[in-house]
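seq:
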Amino acid sequence: MSVTETGATVWLTGLPSAGKTTLAYELAGRLRADGHRVEVLDGDEIREFLSAGLGFSREDRHTNVQRIGFVAELLAANGVKALVPVIAPYADSRDAVRERHRAEDTAYLEVHVATPVEVCSARDVKGLYAKQAAGELSGLTGVDDPYEAPESPDLRIESHRQTVQESAAALHALLTERGLA
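struct:
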């Protein structure tokens, strides 16, 4: 007899270099160790393979988020924990993804990795802030392009105030509380 696992989408939104992807992979390891099926839908990989050709206009960003939301919901509806570390800078785009999940009766959690832009700029994992400062890049989310922080996420994590392990533990606790872990 097999047990049907409850899937869920966990969308981690925040500025570039906020710690979204690091947190997603830490949580994925914990969930896999507990026997869950998990996929991390990394924003950079999605841009390369699923959304190649899209730019960074508001419309293209919305299209990218909707594509990712569709794939995440499909995975979650089939018993997978879909961890989505994707900026998704606009509230209406994130709301549309949440609504898709609600319409399909699929669990959806929004997590705001609320790291201040100054901390993200110091981390500068991909060198984006340095390129923007040097005038080599424009449209950087949270600097010269908008980022609409979630007003009431399911969880707000201040990654600059705790370790990755502490952040993952807080998120794991929320999943457990909601009956998803």
